[in-house]
Amino acid sequence: MTTTQLPDDVRRAVEDREPLPSNHSRRPAPLDDESRGLTSAYERRQPLVGILRRALNTLVLIGLVVGALGPILWLAKSAITPTQDTLRDPMALFPHGADFANLRTAWVDLDLRRYFMNTVVIALGSWAIQMIVATTAGYSLSILRPRFGRVIYALVLATMFVPTVVLLVPLYLTVLDVPVVHVSLVNSFWGVFLPAGASAFNVAVVKRFFDNLPREIIEAARVDGAGDFRLFWSVVLPMSRPVLGVVSVFAVLAAWKDFLWPLIVLPEPDKQPLSVRLPNLAPVTELDVFLAALLISAAVPIVFFLVFQRFFLRGGLEGAVKG
Q1: 142: Cα separation from own chain's centroid
Q2: CA distances (Å), 255 to each of 159, 179, 244, 282, 299, in order?
Q3: Which residue spans within the chain are E strands per DSSP?
Q4: What pLDDT does 6 receive?
Q5: How wide is the angle at C-alpha 31 spanned by C-alphas 37 and 312, nearest 5°?
Q6: Predicted structure pTM score
Q7: pLDDT for 322
Q8: Rounded to whole angstroms, how far apart are CA atoms 179 and 182?
Q9: How far apart are CA 189 and CA 117, in angstroms?
Q10: How far is CA 298 from CA 67, 112, 253, in A?
């Protein structure tokens, strides 16, 4: 039966009916970020749900702040608190006043200045060696692309699967008698600098960043007559400041907190860094002075990270991971 054969009232109802939505319009709307979660958009518009969500977010934020800053703030408070007050009530806030002399005692009497400078020298030397190795290796593998470059890169990455403890003995034997030149780097800062440069992680991070550099700029520089060194120094490095900042933070923090390798290769106390000397000073030092020494040791890495943390939050890891 066609539409013209239907009764007049039924035919008019069919003709006046609104058209059905197409298949495309029947598809559910894609979920945006606000629609993904434990509560739906309708539930979030309810006043009680909104209050509970804000309260939960506040509690989570407070927990994160206390968990992250709590130990540091307690160390800062205890470093300027007399020992008896810390032992009697560790959580009290200056019951008998603050004693800032602990910082001076730790710096002068414990000869912390010497160990602090040793740590600075080790951190700067390790940073310089790691930057040279990571940037030149990344530039060679990513821009110059030598023959068998993929094989070399795979071998470099394979070293990341070797536990560091396994390498201690052969590394120490190498430092004890360096091949070809036959000199010993024990009790020398070079014994800490040079092994730090062999970081496959830094090479991988820098290479991945170089892979994402605009090839048009590199080709234009080559057309203008730039050689390999000029291309590396004047074109690639200025465009790579984010990843250089990331590698710098990793290198300095790793060198600052390293304990085992400096303990092995620097047996002489006058050349040891803070990370090695502080455990030896703990048994013969007052608690408040020792806590002040710990605060001085931890202050520099915290300040350094706060200064360079923007490289983590913006261009650094983005450029290193993208690809």
Answers
A1: 23
A2: 19, 25, 16, 21, 15
A3: none
A4: 54
A5: 65
A6: 0.74
A7: 46
A8: 5
A9: 12
A10: 17, 13, 10
> What gap in Å lies between CA 66 and CA 72, rounded to an integer?
10
Cα 251 from Cα 272, distance rounded (Å): 18
Phi and psi (nearest 5°) for 120?
A: -65, -45
| Distant-in-sequence, close-in-space partners of 98: CB < 8 Å, separation ≥ 6 | 80, 81
* Residue 185 · residue 265 · CB < 8 Å: yes
DSSP letters along 288-314, please?
HHHHHHHHHHHHHHHHHHHHHHHHHHT
Residue type, 212: N
Lookup result for tokens 């090839």? 215
Q: What is the pLDDT of residue 130?
A: 93
Q: How is residue 311 written in tokens?
A: 């490289």
d(CA 113, CA 120): 10
Tokens describing residue 134 = 């990571």
Residue 227 identity (one-letter amino acid): G
Q: What is the mean pLDDT of each run of 10 residues along the chain (323 residues)?
A: 54 56 50 61 77 89 87 88 83 79 86 89 93 93 89 90 86 89 90 88 91 89 88 90 86 89 91 90 87 88 78 54 43
CA-based angle 168:174:177, to the nearest 5?
A: 140
CB 244 within 8 A of CB 316: no
Return the structure tokens found at 261.
């390798």
Q: What residues contact residue 187 under an 8 Å CB cut-off, 6+ apart?
A: 265, 266, 267, 268, 271
SS3 22: coil
